[in-house]
Structures are given as C-alpha cells and as structure tokens.
What does this fold into?
Amino acid sequence: MTSPSPVATDSSAVPSYRTKLPSLTGLRFIAAALVFFFHATFSDPPMNPFADQSWEEGFRWLFSKAGWMGVSFFFVLSGFVLTWSARPGDTLSGFWRRRLLKIFPNHVVMWAFAMVLFAGATTPVSAWLPNLLLIHSWFPQHGTFISVNPPSWSLCSELLFYLLFPLLLRPVLRIKERALWVWAAAMVAGMLAVQLVTDFLMPQHPPTPEGFGVSLWEFWFGYNFPPVRMFEFVLGMILARLVMTGAAPRVGIVPAALLCVAGYAAAMAVPFLYGLNLMTVIPIALLICAVARADIEGTRTVLRGRAMQWLGEVSFGFYLAQYVVMYSIRTSLMDERLFSPLPAVLVLLGFFFATLLAGWLLLVCVERPVMRRWARPAARTTAPRDEEPQPVPALH
It folds into this structure.
C-alpha cells in the first residue's frame, strides 16, 4: 500500500487526546478464554476429555454459547478500538500496513504448524491457499471455511473490517450525537434481519457436521460470511462515538456483566440462529462502554491489574493457538483418551496453560519483532504518534 491519502477523520468529533483504555485489554482475555472453553467442549473433533457422560454433556452445555459470545465481543471491540484510536493525518498505507502486520504473521505461523501437525493430511488441497490468504470464510464449503486452523475464519471478517474502516470512519464521526442511538439500534436491527433471512431463505440442507441443528448454508451465511459481521463492527464504531461524546449509558461494570450473563442464558433458550449473537450483543455493548468509561474516569478495576494486562497482551496469540494446541495434544499425545472428572479437569488446565505458553511465544517471537521492524515507516515527517493500541483478537 503506497497511497498517501489520509484516513478520514473529523477533528471536531474526536478528542484532542487519547485516554488509554487498559481495562479493555484485560477484558479481551476473558473473551478469548470463552472461545477456548467452547472449543474444549467438542467431541468431534475430539477435544472434550471427560469420559463420564454427565460431565461431558454438562461441560458442553455450560460453554455451548461461549464461542459465539466471545467472537461477537471481539468484532464489536474491534470497531470500538479502531475508532477510539483513529489519528488525524494517518495514511491509508500506514493504517493497512499496521493492521495486516498485526494478524498475518501470527496466522501464517499457526497455519504452518497446523499443516505440519494435522491439517495437511485432512484439509482439501483446494482450501490451503484460501485459508493462508484469509479469504476462506467467503466460500460456503465446510471443508474450506472451517479448515486448517479453524479459529482463523474470523480473521477473514477482520480483514474486511480493516479494508472498509477508512471509508466508514468519516461518516460515523459525522453522525450527530442525538442520532447515535438510532444508528446503534439500526445495527442491531441489521443483525436481526440477517438471521431472519438465514432462517427463512437459506437452504435447509445439508446439515452441519457439528450437529448444530441448522444447515451448512444457514451456519455459513448467518455466522461465517464476513459481510454479515459488519453490523457488529460498525456498532463498535458507534459505541466509541457514544463514549467520546459522553452519551454512553451510565451502566456500571458489574450490572453490565450481569446483563451479559442474562444474555448468555437467553442465547441458550432461543433457536440456534438467534442465539449466535443477537441475545448477547447489547449486553456486550454495555459492558464495553462501562469498562471504557471506568478507565476514562480513572476508576480502578481488576482488569487493569498486571496479570490481566499480560493476559490481554497474550490473548491474540492464545486465540490463534488454542485449536492447534488442543487438537495436537488430544490426537497425537493422548490418542483421544478420555478421563474421569478430576483428571479431565487437570487435562483442561494443562491445555489452558500450554495455550498460554504458545500465545506468549507468538507475542514475543513473532508479533512484537514484526511490529517493531515493519509497522512504522523508516522516516517520519509528522509528529510522533500515540502508542498503538494492543491488537484486538479476531476470534473464533
């Protein structure tokens, strides 16, 4: 990218300074952990280590919506963070270079590990290149959009977000304060429209191999197809404007978190398609606003602690490594063996810490060196920029 064109901003709509939002960094890891435990419940592929059927089913039931919720959180947060950190005078080439460097190196490394360890023998050759290029979620074939390192599907949506963000920023910044809530509601309505179209217009066959109770076409269009996730991203952009203007709702972190629990319970009660993101997106939006406002007001939160900040830093690598770590250990080292409850819990803890280690190695050996070497131009003619926000994991 060499275009010198500036990323559109409106200085009248953006604060002249940027308050750091460290609590959102800590919150990222909680969302990544939700996705981890969601994948750990799978029996096919053989992730779930419980031999006792009641424990296996209970574990799967408890985290049955966790992955969907975690991904929705990250898509909303992505729009929020990019809007909050937008800098007047930034260039398209600079913006796109930084965003691509955030996700592609880690993705390529985990793609290579997955191909060597298991995916090379199980993935159709036709899916190799689309997955490597992060365009695989645009294809409705299950062996393509869920392939190689399956959580990487969400990066296809993130790439679309990054491509369109410079075009969306100016219109979002120009929305009048009194109209922000109308536009936020319109994004949620758009999400509902997607599921209605999916429910009533998409083919009902064949079923998903995972046994979700919907067709492959419904799952792909209602969840994996990148354009339909734009509603969550733009909602995040509008939330950033609401916080900037002081128009965000005055909901505390604890009440917002309780609403997330209630939304999760609702997602478990409604039909599958409507539980993917509709029941949880409003509580997620309220939680992001509450956490951001706490940082702006200087309120101390557990999420700002050193441990949570470290976990937040590692969360992107943690997300990308989780499936490869769990699947490889379960199939190669454990031969898919199942365990009684206590050993199974210890196995899950082992998976968790092994994935943390892998995420940390990606952070210190791949992401940070790449960003230091290539994220900024060699020569700068503008004033130094504020610190780049930490990468937002593009999950599930």
Summary: The two ends are 28 Å apart (CA to CA). Residues 26-374 form one domain. Confidence is low (pLDDT under 50) at residues 1-5, 10-17, 380-396. The chain has one domain: 26-374.
